[in-house]
Amino acid sequence: MKKLGIILISHVSEIADGLPKLLTQVAQDVSFTSAGGTDTNDVGTSMEKILTAINNNDAAELLAFYDIGSAKMNLELAIEMTDKQVHLYDTALVEGAYTAATLIQADVPLADIEKQLAPLKIK
């Protein structure tokens, strides 16, 4: 297992659950966890689900990707409640996570991963 892992947050559980299927095709040694939908599985996000996903990830340090709006807010709240080091990225969800996953798999250092993510930042 790699030192860096990835957490994926989406308003829709099918997106959050499906994206790791894509990413494991290029990064089979990276730990992925996800949180999608509200506690009642409606469209939205849940800070509790996000915190669980953070804590259940096997990696010591996490790169976090989210889809829109309140997902970031709940992710920031969950980050405050964990001892894990979590880096939050404002990139397109699929493109950012895919880029990070491939680079983690290739043992690229975090600083270099962040350089590759910078052009993907949503402004």
UniProtKB/TrEMBL annotation:
It comes from Liquorilactobacillus capillatus DSM 19910. Homodimer. The dihydroxyacetone kinase complex is composed of a homodimer of DhaM, a homodimer of DhaK and the subunit DhaL. It is an enzyme of class 2 (transferase). SUPFAM superfamilies: PTS system fructose IIA component-like. It comes from the Bacteria. Its EC number is 2.7.1.121. The lineage of its organism: Bacteria, Bacillati, Bacillota, Bacilli, Lactobacillales. This is phosphoenolpyruvate--glycerone phosphotransferase. GO terms for biological process: glycerol catabolic process; phosphoenolpyruvate-dependent sugar phosphotransferase system. One of its GO terms (cellular component) is membrane. It catalyses: dihydroxyacetone + phosphoenolpyruvate = dihydroxyacetone phosphate + pyruvate. Keywords: Transferase. Residues 3-123 form the PTS EIIA type-4 domain. The keyword Amino-acid biosynthesis does not apply. Component of the dihydroxyacetone kinase complex, which is responsible for the phosphoenolpyruvate (PEP)-dependent phosphorylation of dihydroxyacetone. DhaM serves as the phosphoryl donor. Is phosphorylated by phosphoenolpyruvate in an EI- and HPr-dependent reaction, and a phosphorelay system on histidine residues finally leads to phosphoryl transfer to DhaL and dihydroxyacetone. GO terms for molecular function: phosphoenolpyruvate-glycerone phosphotransferase activity. PROSITE patterns: PTS_EIIA_TYPE_4. Pfam families: EIIA-man. The keyword Transferase applies.
